[in-house]
Amino acid sequence: MPSPTSWLKRLVVGRPFRSDKLGETLLPKRVALPIFASDPLSSVAYATQEILLILSLAGLTFFHLAPWVGLAVIGLLTVVVISYRQVVRAYPTGGGSYEVASRNLGRSAGLVVAAALLVDYIMTVAVSVAAGVDNIISAIPELNPYRLGLNLGFIVVLTAMNLRGVRESGRAFAVPTYAFVVGVLVTIVIGLVRTASGHPPVAESAGYGIHPESVNLTTIAVVFLVLRAFSSGCTALTGVEAISNGVPAFRKPKSLNAARTMTAMGVLSIAMFAGITVLALITKVRIAENSCDLTGFAACATTPQRTVIAQIAAAVFGGDHNVFFYYIQATTALILILAANTAFNGFPLLGSILAQDRYMPRQLHTRGDRLTFSNGIIALAGVAGVLIVVFDGSTTRLIQLYIVGVFTSFTLCQAGMVRHWNRALPHATSTAERLRIHRSRFINAFGACITGVVLVVVMATKFINGAYLVVIAIPVLYVMMRSIHRHYSRVREQLRPDATSDILPSRVHAVVPVSTLHKPTLRAIAFARASKPDTLTAITVNVDDKETQALRTEWEEHNIPVPLTVVESPYREITRPLVEYVKNIRRVSTRDVVCVYIPEYVVGHWWEHLLHNQSALRLKGRLLFEPGVMVTSVPWQLESSIGPHRRRPQHSPGEVRRGIADPHLPSPPANPSPADHHREPAAVD
Q1: Which of 68, 208, 304, 491 has the most crowded Cβ, counting Cβ within 10 A?
Q2: Cβ of 425: how many Cβ atoms within 10 Å?
Q3: Which residues of 128-141 are buried (b: 16+ CB within 10 A; e: fewer)?
Q4: For residue range 7-30, what is the model confidence (pLDDT) as tens digits?
Q5: Are 609 and 603 a contacting pair, CB within 8 Å?
Q6: How far apart are CA 367 and CA 383, in angstroms?
């Protein structure tokens, strides 16, 4: 019968997959779109809101700049999507920005990109979940006191879904993603039709004023405000690179399917972002970072503001108590929360590639039961959960840390692609191929320039508002990855076989620690004798004269053919005298090997671990650091560790002699050797 933990794991994760079933987890385009593009598709739900929040700092008069900021964001999104289509086609093995930068700009640039992407994936989970919870609270304000718990609960659910595997999580995410896209497009169409017919929808906050935090702005201040609004609106670009990282997960032809999926993502994102921005201006949505800056919003101290998309839905569909409003809110909340799935797919894949290159712990390269990189999934969930707790699940506070990493990777990736095309150009064999390379190089060069400028803008406008934390985190991750790589390189060099690797030791000395004469001790001695060492010594530490003398007497009575050595311990220590004894053996010859056979109990309950094997654990912990010393554990299974169906039946004296024995047990040897008397299983406390 499986243990409770095993049963719970199977319930959450599902049955394990064989390694040869990996091909069955590859994705068609219709499933890949919601998995890899849910982040950029969902970000349109708050990108417009972030633009308006920044412009509101200067008052309503600056809302007329929103369309121009939105157009700049759309232009940038178009450039980035076209640029990453080049990446997908040129590097179909996955790795995306990391692989491009590493191959073309060097390992250092690649690690900077990797660090930036890892930070961005973590922020994607935190921001997406927090924004989703905001929309849930917009529909049900009574849930506001439970904001933090809802955030953490959704992260746990997402982790469990992704641990079940890519295809299963894709099926679960496809319906909400497509439902959101359809809902937003229908809202945009209805809103524009109503406007064209002379009955434009009006938001519930249209009558509010905004008390500006800054007045009489200079020209430089206005430019800075617009640039800050633009950098906040650039959250619409988050997750665009995820498809380039996940090309190996697509069905064949991988590059073509990934490029088409990226095009579909770009078209849908641009259409939805533009439509929401236009409707926000038509409906005259009013929103501010501080609720009480909205003049006319009487309950600002106790009631949270509705999100921009919630106000638009209520205005278009005639109020906040109809089924269409709740449909928009439900699908928006779902896709925002599920948008974290982009990171749950990108982070483990990138972590696996870094681990393969020995820049991250090797555990991140290991696939779990469902052929997912489960260690990466759990690590991402843990760090994102910590961020949610630290920032109280506030989207406004979390989003200030966002997109710095995105544009760092964008810029270095596009610069790397320019060098890639420069290297490919001399090998072009036809005029058509050279023209294609020139066109691709121009696209990537233009993309590198644009994203580089945006990176500077984002850094300048968000630095003091929290982006400095990301600026610190990226170098820290870079140094950490370099250190991990140096460690693996040193270990590989130390373990490399040399001329002395196959030289046999001069002698082997076996040592068996003894605390009491019992079956575990006898098994350890028998096992040590079977290995035929040059010398074999049983050693006990004298911490009580009476107990030691009793052990000597019992040792002699059993005629054990191994000498018992007593080591004095005036301070009643056990581990130190044993370690010193082993060291003294090693001092005779550095080519000698000492093998210490430690009897240990195997217990069946967690609390039994606290009652047994503590001395053995301490001794092993010390001996493992001694050169030329081998430690062998000799287990003795207690009844609690053996299932009832595996326990031997108890017989009364004489049953075996009279032939009354368990027919399922093997017959004893016809001519038992003296050593057979010591082959009972053993372990020592």
Answers
A1: 208
A2: 13
A3: bbbbbbbbbbbbee
A4: 454 544 555 554 444 444 567 777
A5: yes
A6: 20
